[in-house]
Specification:
The structure holds 3 protein chains of 3 kinds. Chain A has 3 domains: 1-111 and 162-185, no CATH class; 116-155; 186-314, no CATH class. Chain A has 10 helices and 9 strands. Chain A has helices at 3-19, 83-94, 116-123, 158-161, 187-190, 199-209, 218-222, 247-260, 270-274, 282-296; strands spanning 25-31, 38-43, 52-53, 77-81, 103-107, 129-135, 138-143, 146-151, 173-174. In chain A, strands 1, 2, 3, 4, 5 and 9 form a 6-stranded mixed beta sheet that branches. A 3-stranded antiparallel beta sheet of chain A has the order 6-7-8, covered by helices on one side. The model of chain A has no long low-confidence stretch (mean pLDDT 89). Chain B has one domain (4-340). Chain B contains 12 helices and 11 strands. Chain B has helices spanning 11-19, 99-112, 121-128, 177-183, 191-207, 215-219, 222-226, 231-234, 243-247, 292-310, 322-326, 333-340, and strands at residues 4-7, 23-30, 33-38, 64-71, 82-84, 92-97, 130-135, 161-165, 169-174, 254-261, 264-271. The longest helix of chain B has 19 residues, at 292-310. Chain C has one domain. The relative contact order of chain C is 0.16. Chain C has helices at 2-7, 25-42. By secondary structure, chain C is mostly helical. Chain C is elongated and about 45 Å long. The model of chain C has no long low-confidence stretch (mean pLDDT 82). The chains are: A alpha/beta, B alpha/beta, C mainly alpha. Chains in contact: A-B, A-C, B-C. At the A-C interface, helix 6, helix 8 and helix 10 of A face helix 1 of C.
């Protein structure tokens, strides 16, 4: 099924769910106002469901909107979810932020989402893109005085290349057929890139990676797992983390946020996609995903029944680091 | 003063002249991003760009700024005294700043320096020591909407000099006395040059189609706008991050904190953002803006209603379009304002 | 946490973990001493230091 057919089916399913009152809201995507942007949309009526769409630029993680959501009269909402989003939903269910019964998952095998910054870089940073359409394995990128074909494979989001779960893990209605589970990339080849370096270089890379951070917290606010009422960064008594642009303050925020997501982060990449400065947040967060996988053999969000290693004690947990 | 001409191949001399007394900054491409950076020589100047990702408000209102420092030591002769940070030691020039950004600083002048009581010395010092040489937009982006918020691609307000790109040369127009001094030594422009600049201005203004209508907002009462049902839908996808606030050239909210280490301390001002619940939390724990809806509504109301009401009609937005491009969930200010205007 | 700090270039020996109950006074004393020695051996920390006297 191509994206347009998927979009059509999503609209049908959404309309049915809403007209039957099975869900109070369908959380999906609608067309954005600038090229290469589809944006989260909340359809409450069958008429509004007509605005739902599906393209390779549906990059936000919709599970983010499930926490503390008013579920309306139906006590249930529907979410359009591909593999990574469904893993986040599983994560939220396991952490009791929502129950399985409260979510209706409209599952879609992921086409591999595309990174609009990469598309821009392909045609040149100074060029203004006015329209992008999908054409099979290519994108047709148009602007004032230019038109180019860009192969999709060259501009996928970084973590889509190494995706291991394109199909949704939990699903109430699947659109189309399940696809190949991966896009062929090997996560261990790219995860935790600084491991190969010496200690001094690691710090230098870490500091340089976050050089342009403006502390907007888009990474935190886009993450489905960052739902604390009071984030550690917002604490004032005591103030754990400074709010200045001093290197130490900025890096403290990032390393602690990564730490808080350990054992829960599914590497969905929402943080990296949300960053307005294009910072490669996953260079840091991929390390924790890798460590949890290697130390505990656990991949968050894959299984509703599995027990997260950071919440559960097992006698054979690795403990060589404890005196 | 008549318009002047600055030939592009004479740019190095012009910049060299500025650099005798000033630090010069210009937009530069770094890692595929357009950023403001020190200018080393005339050859690096970009003429064909949209706008920098982050606005240059950092030059006047740094994201982190130490306001004063103090030492809690009665025995030290300098102890127990709060010492203000000194002003800028060297003046500077911003070359090729866009008219929208320059206008934004004019709006912020009204807010930072209102009267005797409200007179931000940190802001003023930097503003007075900066020369703004603007580059008119001949090719506005699809997300620009400056013409509908009191600005324009060739707007002069807030600039000292306006440059218009005529191809191999630039028309240079002095807007302020400071600007006159900067371009006094350049040759006069011919009438044909001035005419071409005027044509480019008309064409640029005509090309901006996606605007906002604000006519009705003026006539509506604050409470009427405040209670519009549209706010229930606008806030839904907002992440409440600080992206729009931080990239905006007119947003100006800040938080002041004291940091201490031993007996030394400093008072520091950081950018803050009204999208955060922390922004309005009271010491009692009460928060007048309890939810996302209240905070999202506040931002648009502030920029498009409260500021015009308090500043004689000036809108708290210059139509640069950065928030439209950078918002992680593509909340479009143009859509929101047009809805407010219904 | 140790692995994450090591990953960003902070020496792992700056962070130590130990299970000690309130009844194990001797173990507490020995551990505290060995941790202090291990960290002292690393010298002053180079990273994650914010000295407000030095910053702008």
């Amino acid at each position: 099924m191509d994206n347009q057919e998927v979009a059509q089916k999503i609209r049908e399913v959404a309309k049915k769910l809403l007209s039957e009152g099975k869900v109070s809201c369908v959380i999906g995507f609608e067309k954005g106002t600038v090229p290469m942007r589809e944006r989260p949309f909340f359809a409450y009526t069958p008429e509004e469901a007509d605005r739902l769409t599906w393209t390779s630029f549906c990059c936000n993680n919709l599970a983010n909107f499930l926490v503390r959501r008013d579920l309306g009269e139906a006590g249930k909402v529907a979410v359009v979810a591909q593999g990574c989003v469904s893993r986040s939903i599983v994560g939220l269910i396991k952490e009791n932020q929502i129950t399985r019964e409260q979510v209706f998952v409209i599952g879609v095998p992921s086409p591999g989402m595309l990174d609009r910054n990469k598309v821009q870089a392909m045609v040149g940073a100074a060029k203004v893109i006015t329209e992008v359409t999908e054409d099979g394995a290519d994108l047709i990128v148009k602007g004032k005085d230019f038109e180019e074909r860009v192969p999709r494979k060259k501009v996928m989001r970084d973590n889509c290349y190494t995706c291991v779960q394109r199909n949704p893990v939990i699903v109430d209605e699947l659109i189309g057929k399940e696809s190949e589970p991966t896009h062929g990339g090997n996560i261990d080849k790219v995860a935790a890139p600084w491991e190969k370096l010496g200690a001094a270089e690691r710090w230098a890379e870490f500091a340089e990676n976050y050089q342009s951070c403006i502390r907007c917290y888009a990474c935190r606010d886009a993450c489905p797992l960052c739902y604390c009422h009071v984030c550690f960064v917002d604490e004032a008594q005591p103030q754990w983390c400074g709010k200045t642009q001093d290197e130490t303050d900025v890096l403290t925020y990032h390393v602690l946020r990564a730490f808080h997501c350990a054992g829960r982060c599914t590497d969905c990449g929402a943080c990296e996609s949300a960053c307005p400065m294009g910072i490669k947040v996953r260079k840091l967060t991929s390390k924790i995903e890798k460590d949890i996988r290697e130390m505990y053999g656990y991949q968050p969000g894959m299984d509703l029944e599995a027990q997260p290693p950071m919440s559960v004690y097992k006698p054979d947990d690795p403990q060589e680091f404890i005196k | 003063m008549a318009d002047k001409i600055l030939a592009k191949d004479k740019l190095a001399d012009f910049v060299g002249g500025l650099k005798k007394d000033l630090d010069v900054f210009a937009p530069k491409l770094a890692d595929d991003k357009l950023v403001w950076a020190p200018l080393e020589d005339g050859g690096e100047v970009l003429w064909d760009f949209s706008n920098t990702e982050m606005s240059p408000k950092d030059f006047f209102f740094p994201q982190t700024e130490c306001m004063m420092h103090f030492k809690n030591d009665p025995k030290d002769e300098k102890g127990m005294i709060m010492e203000a940070e000194p002003g800028l030691s060297k003046e500077r020039a911003l070359l090729n700043i866009r008219p929208c950004d320059a206008k934004a600083f004019g709006v912020l002048d009204m807010i930072f320096c209102q009267d005797e009581m409200t007179n931000d010395v940190y802001w003023r010092d930097k503003r007075e020591k900066t020369l703004l040489i603007g580059l008119a937009c001949n090719d506005p982006c699809p997300t620009c909407f400056c013409t509908s918020v009191g600005c324009g691609p060739h707007n002069e307000a807030g600039l000292d000099v306006l440059l218009v790109d005529l191809g191999d040369k630039l028309l240079a127009r002095a807007v302020s006395d400071k600007g006159k001094g900067a371009i006094a030594s350049l040759p006069d422009a011919a009438k044909a040059d001035a005419n071409k600049a005027a044509e480019l201005k008309k064409a640029a203004e005509a090309s901006i189609t996606g605007g906002v209508a604000t006519g009705n907002i003026d006539g509506r009462e604050v409470l009427e706008l405040f209670n519009l049902p549209m706010w229930d839908r606008v806030h839904e996808s907002c992440l409440n991050c600080g992206t729009c606030t931080f990239c905006c050239p007119t947003c100006h909210c800040f938080d002041i904190q004291d940091e201490t280490q031993g007996d030394f301390g400093r008072r520091v001002r950081n950018w803050d953002y009204c999208m955060s619940w922390l922004f309005t939390i009271h010491g009692t724990g009460h928060n007048p803006r309890t939810g996302k809806k209240e905070r999202v509504r506040q931002r648009f109301m502030h920029k498009f209603k409260y500021i015009p009401v308090k500043r004689g009609g000036e809108i708290g937005c210059v139509g640069c379009g950065r928030c439209v491009q950078l918002c992680p969930v593509n909340i479009d200010v143009r859509e929101v304002v047009n809805a407010m205007n219904q | 946490m140790k692995k994450l700090l090591e990953y960003v270039g902070i020496e792992p020996d700056r962070l130590h973990f130990s299970w000690i109950s309130s009844a194990e006074a001797e173990k507490f004393q020995k551990t505290a001493t060995s941790v202090a020695e291990a960290v002292r051996a690393l010298g002053p920390a180079q990273h994650m230091i914010k000295d407000i006297r030095k910053v702008a």
